[in-house]
Design goal:
Shape: rod-shaped
Helix content: 10-25%
Largest sheet: 39 strands, mixed
Radius of gyration: 50 Å
Number of helices: 12
Oligomer: single chain
Strand content: over 45%
Structural class: mainly beta
């Protein structure tokens, strides 16, 4: 028996050897001829090798230096292979079950192209008559290929007519194929380099080194190509894919890809740039898990329907423009598009979103939805606990010079995302609460700073409601309640339309905290900046503000002036500011109505003042003795009541033009006392007792005052004192030069003359005229 087996083997090897030696050339010619019968251009083969020894019991059949030209005139071949080697069993051919042990394909490329007109350069097969329907009884109905090895095989396919591109390098892969009952089964395992796989809607895999374990089947009856539990490794990240292509159903591709704890940048490196370019500037880092489902017909004109679920608890954002470190980002979510590659149809949803910002700030949201990636629409309910500068950095608001403190925001937002970044857009549906926790803020549009803002602000769309908002600026304190309209739109879009109706109370209000002229001297930067609140006949109000302010001020301070229990009603637009005011001042009561009107680059101010029971010494003290030294708060006492009409001009920086002041006032004065007043003391030179002149008291006086061009005039006034009565006219020049005209009736020579019925206009009768002229300390009796 052994002798028979040895004889058969000897015959087998001898036959193969003789065939490969003596019939080698004939075999090569026959193989090339048979192949070329089916090609429109001839194939070129360097040489053919047959061996029964190297891989016994299989026959080794190899084609070397294979060149297959394209169907067009291209000099680049369609196929170029260094070697194509096949190991097969002779017995399987005899029993019609073709079994290939191994196929080796190495050192070459396949380059197939379709031009923009649809011409294919790989149409190299000769078309034959397909009308024959008889089944060839000799056809192979099943086969097994245990192993197909690819070593350095570069495959390029580009379709410009129906845009697709495939660019892969099979550096070291193995494939197993089998055909049984018209089902082709296979597995691809090994290393490959993906330069680009581009099937609509975009690049599936960009440039990457990949390890693949690809299991697949193809059913020739149902025309379904399926793949199960296919694993692709990119670096240390694995992606598991399942799906199929149903060629009978519009070549419908159904694909599921899962990954767990993959590096986010690795994920971005594989998927289309058009899907990631919007978030690439965020410079994300960390890990993400995802479950993607994609459905798309591979036929022309069809768009994908995809849905990607994802989750993470470790992302961070390091965008240079944010000036904030966002870390420990956690969320689950979904990205999808409905049968479209257009950015307008993309949407992304985040659930249970949370993040840390810098060291102490945070952001949480139950849900965030972003629609339309071209002009994004944001829908969310979000809670933020932020420092002031972090908030402004996040929304790219730059119109401020200083900010500190905390802001807590509970925000519901439905509108354009660009609105938050200061880009002009439609006002969103936005409502919620802002809690200011000792926020300090200096806006560039205002010449004063908010040193402390503390309280709650509610908002609905662009309407702001203030609830007991405490404000401090300098030494001024206020509590605000009221409504502001178009606030966000005006501030973030730097546009007009801001309206405010505010009620406020203040314990202490210091005018100089809001006076631009006073502020200029406080800081070096402010002193170098010219501040104008009037230009071209209009008030320069931030965002063309229109406002109504009603308030109560317990104490009001302006330089040396002090008023209390003030009630204010202020209305202002860019063409007029009207103030209605009442207060306790100078020991009495003051009612004031003032109008401020911009004229060119000035402010014209008119006031009507009613005063009751003012203490004169306090008035002189508050107004710096009206810049004269003859009468001052130390030597004049009394109680005055009356009406004053005034006009004056302010510069655009709120500096008064003293030459513009015009005052007309009518007063009555009770309990007037003049203590060592120089014009009276000089009467000692005409016979009056100096002792009596040192402290003169007066009965009730009715008088008036006129101020114009810095000249103070007191028209003829009757003064009845404890020692005499007289008529007095006074003119005080801006330089302090004074003129006093006194008519001293001769009746004063009597003790206690009768003055009943006398008025300012009464005839003086026989009188001694006295004129006193000069400056303080240098008065002369003329």
């Amino acid at each position: 028996m052994l002798i028979i087996l040895a004889s058969i083997l000897l015959f087998y090897f001898s036959a193969i050897s003789l065939i490969s030696i003596y019939y080698k050339e004939e075999i090569e010619n026959r193989v090339v001829t048979e192949i070329n019968k089916n090609l429109i251009k001839p194939i070129k083969i360097g040489h053919i090798g047959i061996s029964a020894f190297t891989n016994f019991p299989y026959i080794s059949f190899s084609l070397n230096e294979v060149l297959l030209p394209k169907s067009d005139s291209s000099k680049v071949p369609l196929v170029k292979l260094g070697k194509l080697k096949i190991l097969f069993s002779p017995y399987s051919v005899l029993v019609k079950k073709f079994q290939v042990k191994e196929i080796l394909i190495e050192n070459g490329f396949i380059d197939a192209r379709v031009d923009s007109l649809g011409n294919r350069d790989f149409d190299i097969i000769v078309k034959k008559d397909t009308t024959k329907t008889e089944k060839d009884s000799k056809a192979i109905t099943s086969f097994d290929i245990h192993k197909i090895k690819f070593h350095n095989i570069h495959i390029v396919y580009e379709n410009k007519f129906r845009p697709k591109r495939l660019d892969l390098l099979f550096s070291n892969t193995e494939t197993e194929l089998s055909l049984d009952s018209k089902v082709l089964t296979g597995e691809l395992l090994g290393q490959l380099y993906s330069k680009q796989v581009a099937l609509k809607p975009g690049t599936l895999f960009r440039e990457a080194d990949l390890k693949a374990d690809f299991k697949f089947t193809f059913n020739f009856q149902t025309k379904v190509f399926a793949f199960t539990d296919c694993v692709v490794m990119s670096g240390d990240n694995s992606y598991v894919g399942n799906g199929n292509i149903d060629f009978k159903n519009k070549s419908l591709l159904t694909l599921n890809i899962k990954t767990k704890n993959a590096d986010i940048q690795n994920v971005f490196s594989l998927i289309p740039q058009r899907w990631t370019k919007k978030i690439k500037p965020l410079n994300l880092s960390g890990q993400i898990s995802s479950d993607a489902n994609i459905k798309v017909s591979l036929l022309p004109g069809n768009q994908p329907d995809f849905s990607i679920d994802f989750t993470t608890d470790s992302l961070s954002i390091k965008n240079e423009k944010l000036n904030a470190q966002i870390h420990h980002v956690r969320f689950s979510g979904n990205l999808n598009a409905n049968h479209s590659t257009s950015d307008e149809d993309y949407s992304i949803r985040f659930d249970n979103f949370s993040a840390k910002i810098n060291k102490t700030d945070s952001l949480t949201a139950k849900g965030i939805v972003l629609q339309n990636f071209k002009d994004p629409v944001l829908k969310t309910n979000v809670n933020l606990a932020l420092s002031g500068n972090t908030l402004f950095d996040l929304v790219h608001f730059k119109e401020y010079s200083d900010v500190s403190g905390k802001v807590n925001v509970n925000l519901t937002y439905d509108g354009k995302l660009n609105y938050l970044f200061g880009i002009r857009s439609q006002t969103p549906e936005i409502y919620g609460d802002i809690n200011l926790n000792h926020l300090k803020l200096k806006l560039n549009k205002l010449h004063f700073a908010f040193d402390d803002l503390d309280g709650k602000i509610s908002f609905r769309r662009d309407t702001i409601l203030m609830h007991k908002l405490e404000v401090k600026s300098g030494k001024t304190d206020m509590e605000l309640n009221g409504t502001a309209y178009n606030l966000f739109n005006s501030i973030f879009n730097d546009t007009t339309g801001l309206k405010m109706n505010i009620n406020f109370t203040s314990n202490n209000f210091y005018f100089n905290d809001f006076n631009s002229h006073a502020l200029k001297s406080k800081t070096k930067s402010a002193s170098n900046r010219k501040i104008d609140i009037v230009k071209n006949g209009s008030f320069v109000l931030p965002y063309d503000l229109q406002a109504s302010l009603k308030g109560k001020v317990k104490n009001f301070y302006s330089n040396s002036y002090h008023g209390n229990n003030i009630e204010l009603d202020i209305n202002f637009t860019k063409k007029n500011v009207k103030i209605v005011e009442s207060m306790n001042s100078f020991g009495g009561v003051l009612s004031l109505t003032s109008n401020f009107v911009p004229v060119r680059n000035q402010i014209h101010c008119t006031s009507n003042i009613y005063m009751k029971s003012f203490y004169i010494d306090k008035v002189f003290s508050a107004f710096n003795n009206f810049k004269q030294k003859m009468l001052n708060s130390d030597n004049v006492k009394g109680v005055v009541s009356g009406n004053v009409h005034s006009f004056f001009v302010l510069s655009s920086g709120l500096v008064m033009d003293t030459t513009s002041v015009v005052v007309n006032g009518n007063f009555n004065i009770n309990k007037l006392e003049l203590i060592e007043v120089e014009p009276l003391m000089i009467l000692s030179k005409i016979g009056f007792d100096e002792k009596d002149l040192k402290h003169v008291t007066f009965d009730k006086i009715n008088t008036s005052i006129i101020i114009k061009n810095n000249v103070v005039e007191i028209p003829r006034t009757l003064f009845v004192t404890n020692i005499l009565y007289f008529y007095l006219d006074v003119i005080i020049q801006p330089d302090g030069e004074s003129e006093y005209y006194i008519l001293l009736p001769v009746k004063n020579l009597k003790k206690k003359p009768n003055t009943k019925g006398l008025t300012n206009d009464s005839k003086a009768g026989l009188s001694i005229p006295i004129k006193i002229k000069g400056k303080e300390g240098k008065l002369k009796l003329l």
